[in-house]
Amino acid sequence: MRLKDFELVINYSFKDQSHLMHAIQHKSFNKNINNERLEFLGDSILNSVIAEYLFIQFPNYQEGTLTRARATLVKGTKLTFKANQIGLDKIIKLSKGMINLSDDRKYSILEGAFEALIGAIFIDGGWKNTKKVIYKIYEDDFNNLSLDDNYKDPKSVLQEAMQAAGLSPPNYYTIEVKGKKFQSTLEVKNIKYSSTGKSKKSAETKLAESILANGDFI
């Protein structure tokens, strides 16, 4: 995919193309010029835009419900899906040695690239333009979003499902690994599941989602 075509997809044209180039360069491609700092910025911007949307659209819901809704909209699997949806996977720059990565690692890279893109748009065009892009990308999610007081995060859902199946509550084993990542492991019915994330909470949430998607124990 050409960068101009990508800009058409996200409905934003960069004033300075170097911002976009910076956002799609993984550290394996260039250790000195990569998207990690933009990823840090984009993570905060995305959370702020989503939080503002939920605050305005759902005035009668409490903080806990809004927090869980935001977590669902910015979780790793969601960002990976969005990255693929807009074609980031077709333009991201990686080293040749990254081709045979595990799916979990590839998803983490795309998640980071999506956040870096948001950061790059903010640097290039400011809050208003960034908000427009996020609203466009999340249009379907926003149109189909409904909240209720029973809205639960994946870890809570998994715990309830396991207890309903007569199993002990989940006991996550989470450690910090190389690359400022966390790896979480959980054994369910003698099967070990594992996932990684940028934080302890992220790793455990992604792991819960993965086990729920498998669902063999239910």
UniProtKB/TrEMBL annotation:
Record-listed E.C. numbers: 3.1.26.3
RNase III domain ranges (all copies): 3-126
Keyword Ribonucleoprotein listed: no
Key words of the record: Cytoplasm, Endonuclease, Hydrolase, Magnesium, Metal-binding, mRNA processing, Nuclease, RNA-binding, rRNA processing, rRNA-binding, tRNA processing
Residues annotated for Mg(2+) binding in this entry: E39, E115
Pfam families: dsrm (PF00035), Ribonucleas_3_3 (PF14622)
Keyword set includes Transmembrane: no
InterPro entries referenced in this protein's UniProt entry, alphabetically: dsRBD_dom, RNase_III, RNase_III_dom, RNase_III_sf
Leader sequence residues: none
Alphabetical list of SUPFAM superfamilies matching this protein: dsRNA-binding domain-like (SSF54768), RNase III domain-like (SSF69065)
Residue spans crossing the bilayer: none
Catalytic site: D43, E115
Major location (coarse): cytoplasm
Domain DRBM: 153-212
GO CC terms in record: cytoplasm
Lineage: superkingdom: Bacteria
Assembly and oligomerization: Homodimer.
PANTHER family found in the cross-reference section: RIBONUCLEASE 3 (PTHR11207:SF0), RIBONUCLEASE III (PTHR11207)
Name assigned to this protein: Ribonuclease 3
Native source organism of the sequence: SAR86 cluster bacterium
Gene for this chain: rnc
